[in-house]
Design brief:
Number of domains: 2
CATH class of the largest domain: Alpha Beta
CATH architecture of the largest domain: 3-Layer(aba) Sandwich
Structural class: alpha/beta
Helix content: 25-40%
CATH superfamily of the largest domain: Periplasmic binding protein-like II
Distance between the termini: 90 Å
Mean pLDDT: 89
Radius of gyration: 23 Å
Length: about 300
């Protein structure tokens, strides 16, 4: 039987030990070993699945569980400390950075790749070129019908389809065109990028907005099956004449001749060199960047060489 004073003393030891361990390095976690969850914007699922698969096969003691969600949800998870690493196209705001600093957390942001937002339409839609200003006017509600783009079109009201209400894809365009309020009434959210493709493939009036990551890997069967269902629009450059159009493919992303290009970031709040840090370092080094290139995106930390092939 313990005496009351001994019980109190033991409780004090347990409390003191728990305080020492709070925020400490998890047992046995290293840059190549451990078990973590990371939050990933669903737009970047194809390339991140390949990165994680390759890394965890090279390092069998590394277990990385990706949680694919909307941009809004992964940002919430990161700020609430539900995950230590997120993959997103949105940098932390000054307020978020300072909030973490006040909690003694220094967030580190690394550019991982360059992606583009593709505009896709039904296979039977013959209007495959679109001016930058036309895209802007659709988002501003100035153009709502296909015959405003092409007077000969027999299509009706334009339906703009995007992935979800917490979407980083739609947030990008709102910032691009300076939209602070609601979108026009002909904009509709589904849940994921693949659902956007499937909706567009069944509706001739639709324009879909997706990350090109879902259709850029020419050796991926899912990517190619999506390409068989839709047209990918060529869009004119924002500042060049309307005779120059580009589709969101590797060369146009690299040269930024396609107007809707964005960066993909790794953001970490790890307080030590754990598995999240190791994965980020690997993904932004040569092996990880080769996967980015194979996926049809532009690596951020590895130089690439474009070769023009004349037929």
């Amino acid at each position: 039987m313990f005496l009351p004073g001994v019980v109190v003393a033991l409780a004090g030891v347990v409390f003191f030990t728990s305080c020492l361990n709070r925020g400490a390095k998890p047992l046995n976690e290293t840059p190549t070993r451990g078990d973590i969850k990371i939050a990933v914007d669903e737009s970047f699922q194809p390339v991140l699945e390949t990165e994680i698969f390759t890394f965890t096969h090279l390092y069998p003691n590394a277990y990385i569980t990706p949680q694919y969600k909307s941009e809004y949800d992964i940002m919430e998870d990161f700020m609430n400390d539900s995950v230590k690493v997120m993959v997103t196209s949105k940098k932390l705001t000054d307020y978020q950075t300072q909030y973490l600093r006040d909690s003694l957390v220094i967030a580190r942001t690394v550019t991982f790749a360059y992606d583009a937002l593709a505009l896709v339409t039904h296979k039977d839609n013959r209007d495959t070129l679109m001016k930058y200003n036309t895209v802007r006017d659709i988002f501003l509600g100035n153009i709502t019908n296909w015959n405003q783009i092409n007077p000969k079109s027999d299509l009706g009201e334009i339906q703009v389809i995007f992935d979800n209400n917490g979407s980083g894809n739609i947030r990008y365009f709102k910032e691009q065109f300076g939209i602070n309020g609601n979108l026009p009434g002909n904009f509709y959210a589904v849940r994921t990028n693949p659902e956007v493709v499937n909706f567009v493939s069944r509706n001739k009036n639709a324009i879909g907005i997706i990350s090109v990551n879902w259709i850029s890997d020419s050796k991926d069967s899912l990517s190619m099956s999506f390409m068989e269902k839709i047209n990918v629009l060529a869009v004119s450059h924002q500042f060049l004449d309307d005779r120059t159009y580009s589709r969101p493919y590797l060369g146009a992303i690299y040269e930024k001749s396609y107007p809707f290009v964005r960066e993909i970031y790794f953001v970490s709040r790890e307080t030590f060199a754990g598995l999240g840090t190791g994965f980020i370092q690997w993904a932004t080094a040569e092996q990880g960047q080769r996967i980015v290139l194979k996926s049809g995106l532009v690596p951020a930390t590895m130089p690439i060489r474009l070769v023009e092939i004349k037929r």
